[in-house]
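[job 0412] stage=fold_complex status=start
inputs:
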Amino acid sequence: MVTIKDIARRAGVSPSVVSRALNNKYGVKESTRQLIKNIAREMNYYPNAAARRLVTRKSGMIGVMMADISEPFYTQIIKGMEYVASQTGYTLLFSNSYDNLEKTNVLQKMIVTENVDGLVIVGSNRQDTSFIGMLLERKIPFVLIERNFKKDKVNCIWIDNKKAAYTATKFLLEKGHKKIAHIAGNLQNQVAIERLAGYTQALKESGVPEPNRLVIHGNFVCEDGYRAMQEILRAQPDCTGVFVANDSMTYGALQAIHEAGFAIPQDIAVVGFDDLEFSAFTNPPLTTIRQPRYEMGKKSMEILIKILQGEEKNGINLCLPFELVIRNSA
Amino acid sequence: MVTIKDIARRAGVSPSVVSRALNNKYGVKESTRQLIKNIAREMNYYPNAAARRLVTRKSGMIGVMMADISEPFYTQIIKGMEYVASQTGYTLLFSNSYDNLEKTNVLQKMIVTENVDGLVIVGSNRQDTSFIGMLLERKIPFVLIERNFKKDKVNCIWIDNKKAAYTATKFLLEKGHKKIAHIAGNLQNQVAIERLAGYTQALKESGVPEPNRLVIHGNFVCEDGYRAMQEILRAQPDCTGVFVANDSMTYGALQAIHEAGFAIPQDIAVVGFDDLEFSAFTNPPLTTIRQPRYEMGKKSMEILIKILQGEEKNGINLCLPFELVIRNSA
DNA sequence: TTGTACGCGTTATCAG
DNA sequence: CTGATAACGCGTACAA
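[job 0412] stage=fold_complex status=done
writing structure:
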């Protein structure tokens, strides 16, 4: 292993000069700096992260928490984060929180053993909230995605889920649908609550009577959408429109509709939520609310890193625009 | 920050005793060990990873390289890896290699600055091979997924792509299809070559004349499958079956077929490759070759960690079984 | 069984 | 502008 000592010996200087030269700090003659940099390159030197972390008490690592990294919803978020992180030299540390971030001690580990400089936490689970106080107290910068806390010093990136759901439902209403069902997400999540609220509001405003509202719950996965749709078809056979709380469930719903022999959108119109990559390739291509997922990831990391570098202060609340993407399912 | 010194002071012993106690090493009286452990828990002690890494020269981290973490193909592989890693206390470090692992210096960084204890590298890009010699030389244990190098001391996990493609094509032939096209992957990848070979062999064996073979190339993404299928429909209008090198491209192909007004599988039968989660929810549900992706990830990590812990030696070559999942697209 | 002393590679402080 | 020295927190010979 090549260390700064080796370079110092070759360059005929002391290790501390090498350190300063390589880190572009003041107080090194330009000629010696170049000499040292050349030698470092020649010897194929790479700094030892552990040693550096130990003394600087900074890790150059950012922890990323999400429910389940294997959900397609996260891929673009991750990609956006990765882009910024790699540009700025930060390393990302991922961890799944599954249903509950606070039951596990992954956060503790990230903070105390890995010394992450900051965190991005994706998700709106309503049970997970006390970690915020903990992070604030420890003064670990963090950015929340899918949350909208007005609390001071908390950084949030979110979209207006209620308005988006309202827009989606309104779209179905304007197409002339009278009986519109909703496949809701797990109401443990704030986003599910808000999408349900948007759906309800749109129907109310249009004067749709209570019995014509039908809400079935799922947990954001294909299978649940499939089952929920079957139930809708059974419970409300004259339903002609469905708004689904996310695209994964919508995929399941589409299948259930096909199997029941109905045409989309002629018999039943469907609007989803998320605009996953795959949603342009369903049959028919999905009309859905687009969440700017790549942007969410990118922004979260940009904000966090700016805060880490003192260029920005905590308390940022960023509401990103959604968009109704009209394809052929409604 | 709570350190072993703090605990030592509270326990009235020296730091070294604390270290040994917490690491369950011999040479500590059981009573003092318990005392120390209790105090550690009380004080909410977590070891500092940087300090430990610096002295032990082990990082407890495993690097994972793949082309693009946002591809749905990888999600289950990652999940399998994560499961084993979290069980055994290892931390995973992900990095995208995009087209070419060796152009970037991410591997260098992982090895030299982050000190990863081992690596899992997913992909079969034929340009990326020299890194193997480098890893062997540095004696960094690593496991390759999607490769089958017979080389000594190299650990490989793979499936028999040629046989799988042969099976898929044979299935179409047995259904009576005479003109079967193939949407191949990027031939820079070994897996694409082998799937093409399996397709070709099946047709040859069945005596299908050369002009009835049609191969269009794509790069494993939806859009390419869409375009390729359009080309097939144009170039060989009497084609009744298509074998596609991966499911993502298959999704695009399905859409192209729908748009052209053909029925699946009545007019055109389609067989894919991978069995992504979503493939059960296409219209119609996809007949495809299932790759045991979760298992691949799980096994890779199990093998790597066993090697790291000296319970296993390098040179493992594991061929996992594939399976033709018959749904409704063929 | 316990304690002492040292070193891992780097950066920061302070003196030259 | 440069160099010596002392940390950072932990693990480990070796001595007690």
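[job 0412] summary: Residues 8 and 18 of chain A are 6 Å apart (CA to CA).
[job 0412] exit 0
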